[in-house]
Amino acid sequence: MLQLSGKVAVVTGGGGGIGSAICQRLAAAGAQLIITYNSDQDKARAIANSLAGGNHLVLRCPVDDSAAQTSLANAIREKYGRLHILVNNAGISKGIAHDDLDGLDDELIDRIFRVNWRGAFATIRALAPLMRAEGGVIINISSIAGRTGVGSNVAYCASKAAMDSMTRSLARALAPQIRVLSVSPGWVDGDYARSMPRALIAEQEEKTPLGRIAQAEDVAEAVFAAVAQLRFSTGDIIAVDGGRPLG
Question: Could you tell me which residues come within 8 angstroms of residue 17 by beta carbon, excluding any fewer than 6 positions away?
Answer without folding.
Answer: 188, 190, 191, 216
